[in-house]
Amino acid sequence: QVSELVQFLLVKDQKKIPIKRADMLKNVIREYKDAYSEIVNKAGRTLQEVFGLQLVEIDTKRHTYILINNLPRAKGEYLCREKEKEKMGLLLVILSFIFMKGNSVKDSALWEFLNLLRVYPGKQHRVFGDVRKLVMEEFVRQKYLEITPIPLTDPPEFKYQWGPRAEKETSKKEVLKFVAKIQGKDPTFWASQYSEAEA
User: Fold this and answer.
1) What residues in the chain have per-residue pLDDT under 70?
2) DSSP 44-95
3) Fold designation for 82-198
4) Distances (CA, A) of 94 to 33, 41, 168, 170
5) Bridge partners of 125?
6) Who contacts 108 (Cβ-Cβ below 8 Å, separation ≥6)?
7) Which CATH number is 1-69's, of 3.30.70.100, 3.40.710.10, 1.10.10.1200, 3.10.310.10?
8) pTM value?
9) Rounded distance, CA 96 to CA 29, Å?
10) How does pLDDT run across 30-56, given as a tens digit for each residue?
């Protein structure tokens, strides 16, 4: 059961979709549900020792898990497989923008910012494909971003914040370092973000 669960989790993680306890029970653990926590703990240990991945529960009400990469990261290398690098680069830029703007941004501000980078929602991008779909669906489904409707807006507006996976896989400190590197400034240049990142 343990090795079957490890494989199941690795396959699910390829798409970076959070894994529900119900799916683990239904697809892998089945009649061994009394030994659920033991099987999950052992699978967690195997993932940690063999793959350097950590099984983390991100939602205790809905019992949802993700795998996060906790191998020591090379400087500037971002948690991912080769073809995902560009997407993760874009994600890091979006997370940086949200953090620098006070941890929450309206969708209109986000699209405006991406336009400056010549990434246009609604246009096919050579690397990212449909950018709006990537941001609003994929990054949200993977729990990197959270999107919340802003009440009483017509047409409807949304705000973006960091999702639980972003909180676990990176930190505000890392993101501030990244921004500082791009801007060629010291992280302390942004006093309020700096004190929040150090907190």
Assistant:
1) 70-85
2) HHHIIIII-EEEEEEETTTTEEEEEE-SPPPTT--SS-GGGHHHHHHHHHHH
3) Arc Repressor Mutant, subunit A (1.10.10)
4) 40, 34, 16, 13
5) 129
6) 157
7) 1.10.10.1200
8) 0.67
9) 39
10) 888 888 889 998 998 888 877 778 888
